Structure formats: structure tokens, C-alpha cells
């Protein structure tokens, strides 16, 4: 049985005295022009490559039945992606959209095709996020060049946010199974102690940076994003590093010496820990719904269970108080306490 071909992906390759990002597509490699420290630029090049690979002959504006979805995605990536805060997310979404949509015209976007696409994806949530990117691309194309008519999207129903969090015993088991993969152990500890998003953890540097987040070990501050990075809707504010984590980080820095990346594999930056995280989860005998983002859920839940004031916890995690209280508020010891006390005081 032939092996399933891997989609185009970024790969770090040594080039003389420095490492550079290339795009590997089957047996072909394409240069991005980005060095190891320019990962965000490499992610933009990947998104451009994916969009161009499926694009038809360029056109600008016109009837929806004469403009390909691949062309709409190409324009969106080339013109808009460089200005967004999370270019890799666009690349990931295009990878999911292209097999179903790339050969179709914009006019084919209808309720039935949206539902068929959603059925072809792993989860409704995944389909919804990818369709949101396609809708954004269509709206951008219409705004800049005109579409007649602009299609209406039928989106999968929004599901309740997944809130899987780890108990202390589960977290300890996960860490124990990651002990032989230090980059994964570091990732887990930072996620548990700070609730930082996966992408921001992977981008952390030991040195000040305008392109990525970095750690100020003298002041005990984690800068989740670089000073020159565009801020997206996913908040990444600085956070005070907890003392126990700070002690770990200072030890890691001594071990790393001249290595730049906090999460590194043999000195090189790491794009994803999904596979290694999955191995640690399986070895720890945890359920399949434990994913890297569960570490953020865990940090938020533990803060609420400890009785931390919501505005303090929200600022530390980088989310709004409204989201914190809606998703995690029931874990707080004072949750609805005044209401339950008041109603209990009334005699039947």
C-alpha cells in the first residue's frame, strides 16, 4: 500500500554557517529566503506557496462563476497575510481548504458545498475555522477587486468550547512521560505555569527580539510576543514568570549556553510538538482529548480553583475577564456564592 503523501511543510536546513527555512513538497525543496530566526516570514512564504500551487491564471474582479477559489486564496495570502499576526494559521487553513475548494469557482460556495466540506473534515470546529478563513479571503477579494455576486456561507454550528483540563496527578504523569524529550517537558511546564498559547511558547527566545517572544530572566518577565509583531485577536501580553518556573528557566538557560530558542531540538527551533506531545499523552494513559491547548485550560482552571481574582487571572493569561468568567468561572470558590447564600437564608 503506497504511503500517504505529506503536505508541503517547512523544514530547517543547514546552509553554510546558518540554518535556513525551506518548503519541502514531496521530493522537491523550495527556498523561502528566511533564516532560522525569521520563522514568521517563512510561514508567510508557506501560505503563499500553498495558495499559488492551486491557483489558476490570475484575474482581478468580475463574476463569481469565472473566478477560482484558488485565485481568491492566492490574492488573500499575497496581499493580506503578511500583515496578520498568525500567518501559520492561514497556511494551516489553506492546507485544509485546498483539496476540496481549489478547483472550484467562487460561485460554487453554497449551503450544500459548505455542508459537504464540513462533513469531509475531522471535526465541525475545524471546518468552521477553515471556512472563516475562506470567507475572510472572499470578503477581502470583493473589497479590493469586486465580486458579483458575493456568496453566502453556511457555517457549522458553534460548539461549546472544549475545556479539558488536567488534575495535578495527570499533569505529573504527563511530565514524567516527557522526561526523555526535554523540549516537550519545557513546553508542558511553560504551558501549565503560564497558560501561554502553543505558538507563543514555541517562539520564545532567550534574547530580546522584535520578531518573537522572549524571556527576561533578570526581571522575571515573559514577553509573549516581539516588540515588532502585529497583535492579533489572540492576546499575548507580558506575564510575570512564577518563581518555580523561573528557577527551571534559569537552569535551562545555563544548559543551553549559546542556543537562541527556549524550545529547541538539538539547538534548532521547533515548529510543532503535536506528535511528541501525543506520545507523552499516550504513555501517560491520558484520554485523547488532552491536547497542547489543554495546558492553557489547565492554567486557567487552577487559577480559578485557587481563588485568584478574575481580573488578575485574566491579565496573567491574556484573555478578557468576560471569557474567563464564562468558561472557567464555575471553578472559583466564590462562584455564585452570594446568590446561593441569599436564597438559602430565606425560609421556605
From TrEMBL:
List the InterPro entries hit by this protein, alphabetically: DNA_brk_join_enz (IPR011010), Integrase-like_cat_sf (IPR013762), Integrase_catalytic (IPR002104), Tyrosine_recombinase_XerCD (IPR050090)
Domain Tyr recombinase, chain residue ranges per copy = 161-341
Q: Does the keyword Aminoacyl-tRNA synthetase apply?
A: no
* Keyword annotations: DNA integration, DNA recombination
Q: What PROSITE patterns would the database entry show?
A: TYR_RECOMBINASE
**Keyword Transferase appears in the UniProt entry:** no
Entry's Gene3D superfamilies? Intergrase catalytic core
What are the recorded Gene Ontology BP terms?
DNA integration; DNA recombination
**SUPFAM superfamilies documented for this protein:** DNA breaking-rejoining enzymes
Q: Which GO terms describe its molecular function?
A: DNA binding
Q: Which domain of life is it from?
A: Bacteria
Transmembrane regions: none
Q: Pfam families annotated for this entry?
A: Phage_integrase
This one is known as Tyr recombinase domain-containing protein
Protein's organism: Mesorhizobium wenxiniae
Amino acid at each position: 500500500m503506497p504511503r500517504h503523501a505529506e503536505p508541503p511543510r517547512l523544514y530547517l536546513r543547514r546552509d553554510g554557517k546558518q540554518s535556513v527555512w525551506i518548503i519541502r513538497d514531496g521530493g522537491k525543496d523550495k527556498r523561502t529566503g528566511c533564516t532560522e530566526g525569521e520563522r514568521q516570514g517563512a510561514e508567510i512564504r508557506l501560505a503563499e506557496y500553498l495558495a499559488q500551487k492551486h491557483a489558476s491564471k490570475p484575474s482581478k474582479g468580475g463574476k463569481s462563476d469565472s473566478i477560482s477559489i484558488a485565485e481568491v486564496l492566492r490574492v488573500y495570502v499575497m496581499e493580506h497575510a503578511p500583515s496578520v499576526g498568525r500567518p501559520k494559521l492561514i497556511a494551516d487553513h489553506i492546507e485544509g481548504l485546498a483539496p476540496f475548494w481549489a478547483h472550484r469557482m467562487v460561485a460554487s460556495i453554497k449551503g450544500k458545498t459548505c455542508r459537504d466540506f464540513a462533513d469531509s473534515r475531522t471535526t465541525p470546529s475545524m471546518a468552521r475555522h477553515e471556512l472563516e478563513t475562506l470567507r475572510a479571503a472572499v470578503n477581502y477579494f470583493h473589497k479590493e477587486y469586486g465580486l458579483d455576486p458575493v456568496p453566502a456561507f453556511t457555517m457549522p454550528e458553534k460548539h461549546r468550547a472544549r475545556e479539558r483540563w488536567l488534575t495535578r496527578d495527570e499533569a505529573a504523569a504527563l511530565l514524567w512521560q516527557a522526561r526523555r524529550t526535554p523540549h516537550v517537558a519545557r513546553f508542558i511546564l511553560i504551558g501549565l505555569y503560564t497558560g501561554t498559547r502553543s505558538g507563543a511558547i514555541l517562539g520564545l527566545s532567550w534574547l530580546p527580539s522584535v520578531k518573537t517572544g522572549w524571556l527576561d530572566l533578570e526581571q522575571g518577565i515573559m514577553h509573549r510576543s516581539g516588540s515588532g509583531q502585529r497583535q492579533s485577536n489572540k492576546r499575548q501580553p507580558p506575564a510575570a514568570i512564577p518563581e518555580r518556573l523561573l528557577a527551571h528557566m534559569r537552569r535551562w538557560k545555563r544548559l543551553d549556553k549559546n542556543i537562541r530558542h527556549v524550545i529547541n531540538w538539538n539547538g534548532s527551533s521547533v515548529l510543532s510538538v503535536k506528535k511528541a506531545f501525543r506520545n507523552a499523552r499516550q504513555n501517560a494513559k491520558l484520554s485523547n482529548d488532552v491536547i497542547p491547548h489543554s495546558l492553557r485550560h489547565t492554567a486557567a482552571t487552577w487559577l480559578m480553583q485557587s481563588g485568584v481574582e478574575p481580573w488578575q487571572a485574566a491579565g496573567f493569561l491574556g484573555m478578557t475577564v468576560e471569557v474567563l468568567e464564562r468558561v472557567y468561572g464555575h471553578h472559583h470558590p466564590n462562584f455564585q456564592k452570594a446568590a446561593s447564600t441569599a436564597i438559602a437564608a430565606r425560609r421556605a
